[in-house]
Amino acid sequence: MATELEKVEIVTVGVGWTGGIIAAELAKEGAQVVGLERGKGRSTEDFQHIHDEYRYAIRYELMQDLSRETITFRNHRDERALPMRQLGSFLLGEGLGGAGVHWNGQTWRFLPYDLEIKSKTDERYGENKLGDDYTLQDWGISYDELEPYFYQFEKTAGISGEENPKGAPRNNPYPTPPMKETPITQRFKDAANSLNLNPFHIPSGNLSETYENPDGETINQCQYCGFCERFGCEYGAKSTPNMTVIPTALGTDNFELRMHSNVTELMYDGDTVTGVRYTDLQTGEEFIQPADIVVLTSYVMNNVRLLLNSGIGRPYDPETRSGVIGKNYCYQILPGANGFFEEEKFNTYMGAGSLGAAVDDYNGDNFDHSDVDFIHGGVAAITQTGQRPINNNTVPNDTPNWGAEFKSQSIKYYHRVLAVGAQGASIPHRNNYLSLDPDYKDIFGQPLLRMTYDYTEQDRKLHNYLSEKCAEIVREMGADNVEPREISDHYNIVPYQTTHNTGGVIMGADPDTSAVNNYLQMWDVDNLFVVGASAFAHNGGYNPTGTVGALAYRAAEGIKKFREENGQLVQGKRSSKQV
Amino acid sequence: MAENNEKTTMSRRRFIKNSSYVAGGAIGGGVLGTVLGRNLLNDNQGTAPKESSGDSSQNFNRALMYFTREKDFNILSQATERIFPEDDNGPGAIALGVPFFIDHQLAGAYGHNDREYMQGPFYPGSDFQGYQTRLKRHEVFDVGIQAMDRESQKEFDASFEELEGEQQDQILKKLQDGDVELKGVTSSTFFELLRSATIEGAYSDPLYGGNGNMEGWMMKEFPGNYMSYIDEIGEEEFITKEPKALRAHISTQ
User: Fold this and answer.
1) Which ipTM did the prediction report?
2) Which of B29, B69, B151, B205 is the one with CA 20 to 30 A from A97?
3) Which domain holds residue B206?
4) Strand boundaries in A363-431, DSSP class E
5) Residue A483 in contact with residue A338, Cβ under 8 Å?
6) Is residue A392 part of a domain?
């Protein structure tokens, strides 16, 4: 029997970047906020012995414990989905700060083209360039409307960057200057310039100098120690929720943080959400926390799963193409090229998660797609994130992956490989979606989320195009041997690719084809906001966190409005063209 | 949250630019002097190698936590040495302590799949759906090692331990290709666990029992645990540094 607690005004499900931003913004306004976080607490002091590749990067100490909950996966609808029994393709976060603790910090603004991708693509290339199976949609908000929120997130996080000639236009410079130039970034820029491209430093959440944000939180200067992705920062030099919005929220006295609190259900009466049910993982006790406003701020997977398990919204059906929850799940493709240098060695063991240089000439609609049969593109970059020895054994293609030849080649090339990689945009397809699994359950006996996903023709064409562009840059950099990457026959859940999962609770202007409005308020449930990359109507050609942060600040503003006005904040535009 | 007082714990930076490793101190006689030339497999109790350091104190950590039969451990040891052999670069898996690393890992959370989803039902799955056996990793190693010996008897009429290196490679290749029948798991799943665990043991922090004397890192010129490269990351030339393990980072003892 669950214990019913006293009602609070706002409850957030999860306390990472999105939950932390909502908590900080609303607690500053005087709202009483409770944050329910199922993982444990952690701060910079927990990272004093973080330089341990095996513990953190191989055994995934900071990531989700899959023995309690995972997803199931299949490539196609006619296949049996099976559990993702160990982490691989993407690394789900767990604990205070979520994946915001072990991210790399590369902080981008999606392009104006991204936010109006359907209209702009149709306008330039004619109706339905890709055909009917691609469920491309506008996001229901323009870049100009979102610009101030991007800047708000960048100021909170202190992002270090410089002007990007092909990027989204900025009204203000970055809060801190770009990270250091290194021989590796310089060589990329020289090559890009000689190819008439427009290189620049990657906008970084590892800060170039010590910075105090508008809330008075301090982030330290990055030391380039080479342990960033998959690790926490022992210097407090990586922008994380734990360094910024969470202490800001706690400092107001209006925010209560409850750890080990695993939400299992949103209490829904068919009209509004009255609160949440959660279990204290340390005692096993079950509670009901009533609230005026519920904000779903967990990762993409659990935002979708909690809605489906709570019977909220219309589940997406790929057969009839009706419904919205679980629709437009997207990922990213990772084209690129490895360059092998026979005569030179580079200090690739040094680095930082966001240290690197990039070009946006092949991203979005920055080049003419009239003569190609795909849309969009991706940022192409060289990164110097700190190569550690277990995970980095790049060898030429014809080398076996064990034995004498493998050993000598992997040692030889350890400091002699530079790679240029692209983050290829992911365009939604009717057959790529999220739903509940009919067989497999979590530790509470609730259905797991089922992912149905495979690469599309669009993905394959874009992959080939971008890999060749990356190879051109690597050749220009002077590599003796250049190997473009190839895309596998099907999407594979095993090798690590990227933790840029998006969609499932997408935003839009039309309640028939989207789940949330442009304040991330559910169309169907006025007092429920669903915040995160789950709102992305497709995935762009960048790391998603900058756009996630902007949307969280947008949602915070929506919640402030909702406290005053109640009801739907946006008038839906029903097209009923596609139902 | 007290986040700002970490810099006092930063270790003193030490680096040697453009030099080879200096002999002496914790680095011992270096890679070539102590490791090459020793017949590792016949040295001291069958396959259990001595530490490759000049330190003569006993390493009590080099004993078995998981395996119950030395024969199984010896088969494992020889397989890891074929995967990561001693060569001109330096020591192989055995001298680095990789077999003990794997033994210790199998005894703990890794071997028992503590943080993996292990609820049924179990089905074989496609090549793109990953680990789908009901066996835990320690059980996969058990059936895999038994199969290696069985396969050696079948192919060469001898135990895996008695085979020539190239014959051992043939058995390993068969496992990798999924061509050996195992109960409850594919042989390629076992081989991939064995292969990745060997690399992990060669290059993880020596606190886990592999990467003996940091010689895995020295071969790769990876300096381990340094707190800052801010003053060096702009340098043009490659910088070789004396490696440091996490042991150097603990202040209490």
Assistant:
1) 0.96
2) B205
3) 61-117+129-249
4) 378-385, 417-424
5) yes
6) yes
